[in-house]
Amino acid sequence: MKNVALLAGATAIFAALSVPAFAQTEIAAGANATGVSAVDDQITDIEDAVTDDFERSQDSERFGPEDRRQGLFGSMALTYAGSSGNSDAQDLGVAGRVSYNQGPFAQSVGLAIEFSENDDGNKDKEEVSGIYDAQYYFNDRFYAFALGRFTIDSLVDGEADYPGDEDVAEELTDLRRDGFLGFGPGYRVINTDSTAWRVQAGVGVRYTQTGQQYVDDESDTDTGYILSSRFYHRFNENIFVTNDTDYLTSDANDVATNQFGVNFQMSEQLATKVSYTTEYQSDRDIRTDNTLGVSLVYGF
Predict the structure, then answer these.
(1) 93 neighbors 76 (Cβ within 8 angstroms)
(2) What's in the keyword line of the UniProt record (predicted)?
(3) Whole-prediction pTM value?
(4) Distant-in-sequence, close-in-space partners of 26: CB < 8 Å, separation ≥ 6
(5) How many CA atoms lie within 13 A of 135 on its CB side?
(6) Minimal CB count within 10 Å: which of 53, 60, 164, 246?
(7) What's the angle, vertex CA 195, arms to CA 192 and CA 199, rounded to 5?
(8) Dihedral, CA atoms, 64, 272, 281, 150, nearest 10 degrees?
(9) Residue 127: phi, psi to the nearest 5?
(10) From CA 193, how far away is CA 63, in angstroms rounded?
(11) What are the helix (H) ranges across the chain?
């Protein structure tokens, strides 16, 4: 099976936007039993989603790596929850990222491990993922990049995970292993205080294995070609626009995405982002999907 959607070889190019901080609330005693904490967590999740949307409009390297942090640094995080009684479930998550920057060369490695059991004590997630990202700058305009990704879903094995499991047939077409490695050159066409435009092109190789291929001891390896563009322009201190374009082609299909965004810093308290995303995939019945996104933050 060759269902190829190669990872685009480009980092988003956006300008920094000052976002008003969300209000922090102290939760009183008794909030857990009364359900107040659960609703407060929902509010936090929505706030985090909006903040993440604004942060995607930021790119510390849109004008180059001059202010990049040097040396070795990173972080690790772990979360675990286990329950018993009316439900018997477990959730484990481990994530970490290590970066090393030295002069014109920067690289980072990330790892994520997720394990969970549902309320009946049956496994419903067992995944390990890793990523690699590297850039080498020959000068302030010309650079090379490399991207790597590998994911293993151990539950996709073509066998029942527990008595009565009805997802075996679907597992045969799901991906058990999915890996990608790509590299190529990049160039900053425009690099001024108000406008930045860079383009990247490269070649990538993707390795996949479905549940059926795992049973048959088979796999697929495909080659794809990547072309990416990142454009940013600031009109004034309060308004800037971005346009991100990615195109990739392989033996399996062609995929193209374009996201146009307008960011408004309307006041010190109010910030708004409006984006329009178009995604094209050649092997779908309806080849084009369009998405309108609006994020707004007001702090007081």
Answers:
(1) no
(2) Signal
(3) 0.72
(4) none
(5) 21
(6) 164
(7) 100
(8) 50
(9) -125, 145
(10) 8
(11) 31-34, 36-55, 168-171, 211-216
Run of H or E residues at 110: strand 105-117
**How far from the centroid of its chain's Cα atoms is residue 196's Cα?**
22
- Quick one: which of 254, 297, 294 has its CA closest to 277? 294
Do 97 and 110 contact (CB within 8 A), yes or no?
yes
Distance CA(34)–CA(27), nearest Å, equals: 11
* Element containing residue 128 per DSSP (H, E): strand 123-137
Per residue in 58-99, pLDDT tens? Answer: 666 666 666 678 899 999 999 998 888 777 788 899 999 999
Place of tokens 């048959």: 216
272 to each of 232, 235, 241, 288, how far by Cα in Å?
17, 15, 12, 26
Say what the alpha-carbon torsion angle 42, 14, 61, 63 is, to the nearest 10 degrees.
Answer: -160
